[in-house]
Amino acid sequence: MTDVHNAQIRSYNMSRIGSKNTKPELLVRKFLFSKGFRFKLHVRNLPGKPDLVLPKYKTVIFVHGCFWHGHEHCRYFVIPKTRTEWWMEKINRNRTLDMIHEGRLREEGWNVIVIYECALKKERQEETLAEIARRLLQIKMDLD
Ligand SMILES: [Zn+2]
């Protein structure tokens, strides 16, 4: 029983943790590139290793999975009924780290855009992507 359970968690972990180039992230990259925004990927020397970095816009973008980052009031964030405490601890730790990373980035003068995966589901992605572009243009105007 324990083994089966652990195996399930393990495979779930492996499919999600640290996964680079996830589909939602690719969506954002493709869109921004098509609109002429240029960016760097997974910059290691910045807090939290942001998924996209736009130096010209002094902006970093995180594309967060709703489950691992504990997206509040989101239907994709459902704590498993087993080992609930263990999961909560794990996700709370991720949340805390997210907050610390965002805080440090802002202190260093970065604008931080966080996009949750649910906002990139088919029915919402157009609106979300347009909103990202709007924010970037606004940031650029403020910088100039
Ligand atoms: Zn969500």
UniProtKB/TrEMBL annotation:
Keywords: DNA damage, DNA repair, Endonuclease, Hydrolase, Nuclease. Transmembrane segments: none annotated. The keyword Nuclease applies. Signal peptide: none annotated. One of its GO terms (molecular function) is endonuclease activity. The keyword DNA repair applies. It holds the Pfam family Vsr. InterPro entries: DNA_mismatch_endonuc_vsr (IPR004603), Restrct_endonuc-II-like (IPR011335). It comes from the Bacteria. Coiled coil: none annotated. May nick specific sequences that contain T:G mispairs resulting from m5C-deamination. This is Very short patch repair endonuclease. The gene is vsr.
